[in-house]
Write a sequence for this structure.
């Protein structure tokens, strides 16, 4: 194997990994748009319900995308957990009045992305190809 082939392989793996992450984010956005109108508007007025609905919309699309790519169900469950955990953890301070509904939504989304990335890095063999 030449030096060029050796250096390209990790770069290609990293590009595939990054591409997979972008595909997952796109699936989440599609889920938010496509499924958002299915929920009664009155439910979405409450920040706590809105956060769970948003996580659900994104997770449904993510599960579908991962299933189509033939990921193992335990990996799909891990990714779904990474998407729900930030919101679940932030609901308690929200209910106690320690954070606002805006903080719940923003922080839940901000924490979700690194958790998803951490799940991918942890199981990187699953996401390299």
């Amino acid at each position: 194997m030449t030096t060029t082939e050796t250096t390209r392989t990790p770069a290609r793996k990293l590009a595939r990994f990054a591409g997979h992450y972008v595909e997952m984010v796109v699936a989440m956005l599609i889920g938010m748009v496509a499924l958002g109108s299915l929920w009664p508007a009155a439910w979405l007025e409450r920040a706590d319900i809105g956060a769970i609905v948003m996580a659900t919309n994104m997770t449904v699309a993510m599960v579908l995308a991962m299933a189509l790519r033939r990921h193992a169900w335990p990996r799909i469950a891990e990714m779904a957990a990474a998407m729900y955990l930030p919101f679940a953890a932030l609901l308690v301070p929200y209910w106690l009045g320690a954070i606002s509904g805006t903080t719940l939504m923003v922080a839940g989304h901000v924490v979700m992305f690194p958790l998803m990335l951490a799940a991918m890095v942890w199981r990187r063999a699953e996401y390299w190809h």
